[in-house]
Amino acid sequence: MSLTAGIVGLPNVGKSTLFNAITQSQVEAANYPFATIQPNVGVVEVPDERIDNIAALFNPKKIIRTTFEFTDIAGLVKGASKGEGLGNQFLSHIRQVDAVCHVVRCFDNPDITHVEGSVDPIRDIEIINLELALADLQTVENRLTKVERKAQAKDKEAAAEYAVLSKLVEALREGKAARSVELTKEEALTAKSYQLLTAKPMIYVANMSEDEIADPENNAYYKLVKAYAEAENNDVIAICAQIEEELSSLEKEEKLAFLE
């Protein structure tokens, strides 16, 4: 079984650092925007003590573990749907993922550039979410154009699809996520075929500094992200990507010693 996730966020928020930490890769994580141009893909095995225990009992010739594939794409900026920054063409690389990991900067550091000039996690979240919604809107509107004539000709299947597309267009034009649209089971199956980014589960990753990660609740930025995620019924994870990246390069014994 394989699960997949796409890593998104503004430039310089720690996406590639997180990717390195998870996949034990060594992709460039530089202090300037758009250090990532080509998507980075890494696959990791999911630890499972149950499988280890069963394998110890039966000693099978081969063990097939669940894997998780992560894709790290170039940072999005405000106006990416209109060609700003590197545009939004990289989103095509994560349309087939199971979930989206949205990395949000929750630390102050004057030595690390912020593309918006200041740290404001809610503003940053809304920039990315709007760009994802606009990318989905383009997908849905293109499909709507193709279906509209058939629907007007009283094609039943086309008419049903047109109704679904119309609901999605209305929400996306308002900058809302496709997952916020109420659909029947049949309508949801139709919508799933469009592989909309805002229809996928969203996990916010609050990237914090080393001196604050021990108690995230004392970080004002994290509390804002947590409240925002809860309002959307999404999850949030607090991490220090830099520490996690450093830990990933250590041997098992060294990791345990560090954690102690």
TrEMBL record:
Coiled-coil segments: 130-157, 233-260
Keywords, ordered alphabetically: ATP-binding, Coiled coil, Magnesium, Nucleotide-binding
SUPFAM superfamilies noted in UniProt: P-loop containing nucleoside triphosphate hydrolases
GO cellular component: cytoplasm
One MF term in the entry's GO annotations: GTP binding
Pfam families registered for this protein in UniProt: MMR_HSR1
Domain of life where this protein originates: Bacteria
Family matches, as InterPro entries: ATPase_YchF/OLA1, G_OBG, GTP-bd, P-loop_NTPase, TGS-like_dom_sf, YchF_N
Residue ranges of every copy of the OBG-type G domain listed in the record: 3-259
NCBIfam families (UniProt xref): redox-regulated ATPase YchF
Protein name: GTP-binding protein YchF
Source organism (scientific name): Holdemania filiformis DSM 12042
